[in-house]
Amino acid sequence: MSQQVQGVVAPGKNEPVRIETIVIPDPGPGEAVVKIQACGVCHTDLHYKQGGINDDYPFLLGHEASGVVESVGDGVTDVAPGDFVILNWRAVCGSCRACLRGRPWYCFNTHNAERKMTLLAGGTELSPALGIGAFAEKTLVAAGQCTKVDPAVAPAVAGLLGCGVMAGIGAAINTGDVGRGDSVAVIGCGGVGDAAIVGSRLAGAARIIAVDIDDRKLATAKTMGATHTVNSRTTDPVEAIRELTGGFGADVVIEAVGRPETYEQAFYARDLAGTVVLVGVPTPEMRLELPLLDVFGRGGSLKSSWYGDCLPSRDFPMLIDLHQQGRIDLGAFVTETIGLGDVEKAFARMHEGDVLRSVVVF
Ligand code: APR
Ligand code: ZN
Ligand code: ZN
C-alpha cells in the first residue's frame, strides 16, 4: 500500500521550497523504502532549486541521508527491514565495462528506483535529487543505494558520508592517493575541502596547507587538521604553497571550489610530477586556459574526483569505523541540526558561508 509523507519540494526555478504531501509507492523489485532519520543540506540541492542541474521540476530535494530500511521489494538480499543505512547516489550496476574491469567507482550505469514518488496534489511525478529525495520522512530508492552501517553512530553524522564529506575524504585518499609524508594543499575549505583535510591527515600527510579567502574557514580548517593556512585574498597562494614546501610545491593539490582561477592555482602550486585533484564542481560556462607546454612540462597527473571515487560498500563502513575509533571526527561537520521546515533558511546560511553543514533531523 502506498503511503503519504511530508517532503521538501522545489516547485520551479528559483521558487522557494515548500513542504508538500508526497506519495511513496511500495518498493518494486530491487527497491527499498527508507525511513529517513537525518539529511544534510548540500549545494547540489540549491543548484536543483536554481535550475542549475536540469528543468525536471518539481524536485524532491535532499540526498545526504541516513535512515532505517522499512520495506524491500522482490529480490533484495543485501539489506533488510530494520537495517540502518547510509544512502548513496551511485548504486553501481556490476555489469558495465567499468564494473567488469574491477573499477566500479567509475560505473557508468548507476541506477535508482524505477517506481515514482508523486505529489498528492495533482499526482505529479517528482524528480528526487540525485535519485534520492531525502528531505522527506520516507523515500524510495534502489536497494543498491543503501549501505548498511553500525547503527550506534548518530544519524546526522552518518548521513554526511552520503555526499560532501565522502567526496572530500575520497578526493584525498582515493583520487589523490595521498600517502605518508606527503605535502598536500587544499584550495577552498568548505565542507568538501575540510573533508579533504581530514582525509589527508588520515592518510599520513606531513604538511597540510589550507587555502581560502575567508579567515573563518581557515580557522575551522586548522581544527580539522591543517598545519598551515593561507588567505588567498591577501597572499599569492602559489608562492605561499611553494615557500611552505621547500620551494617545490605540494605533492597533491586538491581543488575544492570548482573555478578556473583556483584550478590554475592548484595546477601551479604542485611540485613537478605532482597531482591535482578537482573535486569542486564547475558550471557549464567556465573555461580553462593553460599553456600546453606547462601541462606537458610539469608532468604528473590531473584528475577529477567524482563523489570521491568512492565505493559506498567499501568506504562507508570503513569511515564509520574510523569515526567510532576516534581517528576522524565526522561530527565536526555538523554545524547545526534543523527541522524539515528550515531548509530555505539553511540555503541562506550556506550562501553566507556560515555553516559547514546544516542537517535536517527527523
Ligand atoms: N579561493 C579560495 N577559496 C574560495 C574561493 C577562491 N577564489 N572562492 C570560494 N572559496 C571558498 C569559500 O570561502 C568556501 O570556504 O571555497 C569554499 C567553498 O565551500 P562551500 O561553499 O561550503 O562548498 P562545499 O560544500 O565545500 O563544496 C565545494 O565542491 O561538491 C562541490 O558543488 C560543490 O563546487 C562545490 C565544491
Ligand atoms: Zn557498472
Ligand atoms: Zn551533495
TrEMBL record:
SUPFAM superfamilies from the UniProt entry: GroES-like, NAD(P)-binding Rossmann-fold domains
Requisite cofactors: Zn(2+)
Keyword hit for Oxidoreductase: yes
Domain Cytochrome c residue range list: 25-177
Keyword tags: Heme, Iron, Metal-binding, Oxidoreductase, Zinc
Signal sequence coordinates: none
NCBIfam families registered for this protein in UniProt: mycoS_dep_FDH
Name of protein: Oxidoreductase
